[in-house]
Amino acid sequence: MSTVSKPRPPKPAKPEPDPDRYGWRYVRVVAAHGTEMATRRVRAAEPTARAEAKQADAAARRADAATQRADAEAHARAAAEQRIRELEAELKRSRRPGS
Q1: pTM exceeds cut of 0.70
Q2: What 8-state DSSP symbol labels residue 97?
Q3: Which residue range is the domain that position 84 belongs to?
Q4: pLDDT tens, residue by residue, 23-42
């Protein structure tokens, strides 16, 4: 006995990339006779990538500043704790009988 199977439909083709993926922007253009017009242009990936790179740089600078602040606070805390130990030792020495 043989089995008859239905042929599978072909896989749909991958959609082509959308050229307007980044949206539109308006650019001011001065015509030859001196009037200004706003024309609609497709946003390119390059300006978007530059903006994303600027955001990444700003985030890295903020992270560096936070790390520097944390390091400075830790250093100040360690210095304060050392000074407290020195003062406590001096206080103990001054309380000893016969000093």
Answers
A1: no
A2: T
A3: 24-95
A4: 777 888 887 788 888 888 87
